[in-house]
Amino acid sequence: MQQMKTLVYSISFLLSFFITISLYLLNHLRPRNIERFTTSSSTTYQNVIPAYDDNFLLLTTYNKKNKIIQADKKWYDFDTSIDDSNTLAYFTYNPSMSFTTHNTYVESAKLNGIEMKGPIALKFANDESSYELTEFTILFMVKFNTNAIKGNHTMFELLGNTLSTGDTSNTSPTYQPNRVSLEFKKKSATEVDIHITIGNDEQKYETQNISILENGKPILLSLVFNKNVSKQVQFKIDSLPKIEYSLIKTDIITLGSSPIIINKGGELDCELFSMAYYKKALTDAQIKQFEDFNDYYIQGINTFLSQTDAVRLSLLEAKQYNQENKKKIDNLNKQLQKCISSKTSSVPTATSASVSSLDPGNLPRISISQIPIPSKISRSR
Question: Is residue 235 part of a domain?
């Protein structure tokens, strides 16, 4: 009988000691008061894809494991299963890609020497019967390495059908190819000119003397076209002011059957985080939201939210575990009391080391101020 009482005392003490140590560690080694990152409008800052229903194509490295299949040399759309029989949902590339890790949080795809070919151009048309192009937005989150631009290079090309010019009754009319393209031309050691073509070669829009491209930092490029507004072409480079153009000519642009191309000829030494194509003209606010979507991953916000969620889960599991231990201690105490009451001799009553005072429900919250948030990758501001 004496051995049983000693065993019960020992178990009760050890369980109480374990609870005390567990709570001490949780209280002192975990950050306190978990709070989600919020925007200035107090809404949850999360990975929201803007105008999701209007998004036609989205490539990102943020889900590289599931969407970039090196064995097949295919990069799938963000929202498409790799088992999908829809052959329009991916880009092909050659040779195999390599990746660079940024700030331990996210990887970028190195496109130096790699040309990417996607779905045929006519699939990007607004009118599925005439294949006419009336509006679109294309976005790139990309990093250009030092001296990435050495001559004339094409970042993006969407080919259209040829357009006849002059007198169409002429026995030998002149035909000019239509296209949408974004090209870079080296101007000097530190500056680059950007040429945008929407239509034929006569419809070229230039942005000159840009010096922030080859700075080795992630930047956002946005090109917006809307045939039905006065300033039909809008182009923006990261934090630089938006540039707007009116169409030189308003000819109908129809798309053809050639594939869309990113980094034509693999000539640009750049690294791609994401690329999105919309069949509508996005607003400035929606483009900013796309930038926030990228920053959610590039700045590691998703990682820290995951870590704080893991802490929450650990605390909840600890609370449940400690509650179960409290029940075990209570049961042992009850058994001990039964043993004591069955004897005439007086035996000191065992306690559970004031388990109630260790109520896990009183755990302090975790403060985000104590989580080591990394400094943002320097963007061109």
Answer: yes
